[in-house]
Amino acid sequence: MPLLPFYCFLIVQLFAQKFFQRFNLKFLNLKLFSIILFSLIFLNFYNSYNIAKEDINNVPIEILEVRDHVEKLNEESMAGKSIMTRKPHIAYYLNMNLVVMPYAENYLEFIQNVKNSNVDYVFVSEKEGLISSNENLRKNLLSIETPPNELEVITYTSTPITILYKVKK
């Protein structure tokens, strides 16, 4: 959308060139290039609008599901508590303080980061980006059946896999 005026300007400048003016035929009271120009600007606007609409509607639905489940399940408010995650969406939707999850090479380093940050919750998701290059760490954190000993599963979604953990203190 921000480039739409620039593209319109380029289209107008292209058709204003003297070379093209000799091909500018007149139908009724309209010139051919005016019709083409209007059509190109309209198509440009229409495509830009649809792309922007798609981007705006592309909400992380799994995060909204976790939020809804937490609001139903939790008696205590999570507002003001801290959550460690790769991206800020869940912290925003739960009104929590964000602590960015650092990259960890192994499980011990990950747990040490959690403890050093003194966070109350940890949120992991297969869509949220690289937690670690260690495949075992990723599998352990994204496994509902065998959660880490230091973390307690609060809620999860299965497609895509997202898990909200409470840190055991």
Key phrases:
46% helix; D-Maltodextrin-Binding Protein, domain 2; 2 domains; elongated; alpha/beta; two-stranded antiparallel ribbon; 7 helices; five-stranded mixed beta sheet; 169 residues
Kindly estimate the percentage of residues that lie in beta strands according to DSSP: 15-25%
Helix share, percent: 40-55%
Mean pLDDT: 81
CATH class of the largest domain equals Alpha Beta
Low-confidence spans: none
Strand order in the sheet with the most strands: 4-3-5-7-6
DSSP, total strands: 7
Question: Which architecture of the largest domain would the CATH scheme give at its second level?
Answer: 3-Layer(aba) Sandwich
Largest sheet: 5 strands, mixed
Distance between the termini: 48 Å
The H-and-E topology, N to C, reads as HHEEHHEHEHEHEE
Radius of gyration: 26 Å
Give the overall form.
elongated
